[in-house]
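hey so i finally got around to running the thing on that chain from the lab meeting. sorry it took forever, my laptop kept dying and i had to restart like 3 times. anyway pasting the input first so we r on the same page abt which one it is
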Amino acid sequence: MNKKISLGLAISLMAIASAVTFILTSFFSLQNFNEKVVDVNEKAKKYNSLQLLDTFIRNNYYGEINESDLNSSILKGYVDGLGDPYSRYLSEEEYIDEQSENAGEVIGLGLTLVEDESGYIRIEQVLENSPAAEVEIMAGDVIIHIDGSDVTEIGFDEAIETLKGSAGTSVKLTVRRNGVDTDYDFTRRSIEVTTVTGNLIDGYIGYIRIDGFKENTSEQFLEILQRLTSNGAKALVFDLRNNPGGLVTSLEECLDPLLPEGKIAIAEYRDGHSETLIYSDSSELNIPMAVIVNDETASSAELFAASLRDFGKAKLIGEQTYGKGVMQTTTEFESGGAVVLTVAEYKTIKSECYDGIGLSPDYPIQNEEPDVDLQLEKALEIIDLELEE
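ok and heres what got predicted. didnt touch it at all, straight out
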């Protein structure tokens, strides 16, 4: 038997449904509005405080204000306030330096420098194919004068800034070795940084050291990989110790010839969506591999090691890695500066993100003897065992 609903009842039910819908809609709209009001009020407080501080300083500060430096420092402070060790604001000059570094080149003399106990500047390393490499300067020498100014008088930080300059400009250094001072005149120029080196060990094991992942790293890597395999390498040892990471695009090009076809690693963003970071084509190198790591192996260098291990290509030898599994993007501002911001975490498709944890080596080994590389010896031992199987 069919039950009929009266017209009055039907209208009443529709009215109730409409009322409930209105109440729910109003509730969520009000909640959203309140959240926005709170957000606006919080922002107003921040900008109010900044305006009050700015007014107070301009009315009372004794010195002169450099508006450009002040603006840059405000932006730096905002990003620093995130409390993220990897996010930062770059001034225009810093951004230019960052771009050069990512490209795998530096402009200067080709010197790696540290502060000496004496207060002067000690040369730690001389880059190949650099202006400094063309003279007799060597690691251990000490720079005492720059363009006639005593380094101890102008201070280490100021001295380092004085050494910087654009390509084509000149600088005069006085360098001390064993108590003897020598003057050198240099012209700064662009220098390509070598991030990949390699050689054959015992005629059949290819050893490849990667110091970082720059724009030119993949080209250097592929050239060395081809040379070593063509010259008879039956296995590979990758040395990533003290590698701080770098560009994921370069990392992908280095991993591509080593891994099977398919998705290798992904990035996961705040809104929950994920994107493929590393994809490998059908070419794959099937020979024994090992990766040496330490506590300074970080970021994309860790992803290199994790990818080879997770896809069954290599064992890890050495120490627990640094544990940086988050990704940054760099966005340029109209002012010429840029913000480097953490936007996602990344991982291989086969394991969890290692951020804040690091990668545990399959064979933990400490290099405790100064003249013996126990980690490399262990890697060669593992490779030899695999070749015997």
